[in-house]
Amino acid sequence: MKIAIVENDSTFVSILKSKITNEVWEIEYFKSTKHLGTVDIKSYDVIICDFILPEMLGRDLINSIANKTSAQLFLMSIAPNNFTEEDVENENIVGLIDRSNPENLIEQLNYIKSKLMINKCSRTIEKTLNNVKNGD
Amino acid sequence: MVMFFNFEGNMELNDRETLIKVEQQLTNSIENQKLISEELRGFLKKLERNDKALALFQIDLKTHISEAPLRRDALSNKLKYITQTIDELKKISEKIKTKYDIELKDFEKKIEDLEGSLITEKTERGTFETTVKTSARSFKVFISIIVGFFSFLVILFKLLPVIIRLFQ
């Protein structure tokens, strides 16, 4: 699972690095949206955006990249009071992460891992069904 | 499946029917799996929405709990203030009651005094009026007597020459 974390706080990044021990997860850190813009966002399974970024709000970044990637998009904040009902209803945002609790992030990533497996199964089923209908 | 269709030319009619049935059942089974998969994805979507709502609720709750001591202090202060206010009100009430009673008593006394004064005044005025009336009546009688007496004298003087002439 390929994960992008857009976060300009290097301290948090080092804490997170120490917490995430899953070697299967390929994690990349981006200090800013500009930095994220230099890579192909389609290649990521998960993109986690901090609430406040140097150029814009994480919420706006998620809304702007939602139709450009199939990645699961998360909004993260050190001050979770920033989250609103609007974020809850926003279908582009898969989950809200409390940055003060790194375990919360890991739980969400585990969930996404299962979700991606379900999605993969769904795609296989659809493909098989198409094959059966087409008589392949 | 592919294998079945490759050999279908060599199969008997019954086998072909069986194969068609199997194929149909397989298709039905995969369609069912697709439906289950779609339901599952819908369920996950709801799960995510509820998870976000729950996160928001937990944050609210956390804030609420963390602010609880502040609210408790504020409530405690308010309670203290209210208690003080009630005590002050009690004191004021007692003061007003005492003062009011005193004032009322004074007022009642004043009214009584005034009533007493009025009665005295009335009595005195009544006596005075009676006296004045009596005096006026006596004075009238006296004046009438005087006037009558003088009238008699005038008449007497007028008649005096006639009386003298009669006696001559």
Task: Describe the protein's architecture and organization.
- Chain A has helices spanning 10-19, 33-36, 58-65, 85-89, 102-134; strands spanning 2-6, 26-30, 46-50, 72-77, 95-98.
- Chain A has 136 residues and is of the alpha/beta class.
- Chain A has one domain (2-133): Rossmann fold.
- In chain A, helix 4 links the parallel strand 4 (72-77) and strand 5.
- Chain A is globular, with a radius of gyration of 16 Å.
- The radius of gyration of chain B is 64 Å and the shape is rod-shaped.
- Chain B has helices at 2-6, 13-66, 68-167.
- Helices cover 95% and strands 0% of the residues of chain B.
- Chain B contains three helices and no strands.
- By secondary structure, chain B is mainly α.
- Chain B starts with a helix and ends with a helix.
- The mean pLDDT of chain B is 78.
- The longest helix of chain B is centred in the last third of the chain and has 100 residues, at 68-167.
- Chain A binds chain B through residues 80-81, 83-85, 87-89, 91, 93-96, 98, 115, 118-119, 121-122, 125-126, 128-129, 132-133, 135-136, and chain B through 1-2, 5, 23, 26-27, 30-31, 33-34, 37-38, 40-41, 44-45, 48-49, 51-53, 55-56, 59, 62-63.
> What portion of residues of chain A belong to β-strands?
15-25%
Q: Write the CATH architecture name of chain A.
A: 3-Layer(aba) Sandwich
Q: Decide which structural class fits the backbone of chain B.
A: mainly alpha
Identify the overall geometry of chain A.
globular
Query: Can you tell me the overall shape of chain B?
Result: rod-shaped
CATH superfamily of chain A: Response regulator
What is the average per-residue confidence, as pLDDT of chain B, rounded to a whole number?
78
Q: Number of DSSP helices of chain B?
A: 3
Q: Helix and strand string of chain B, N-terminal first?
A: HHH
Number of strands of chain A: 5
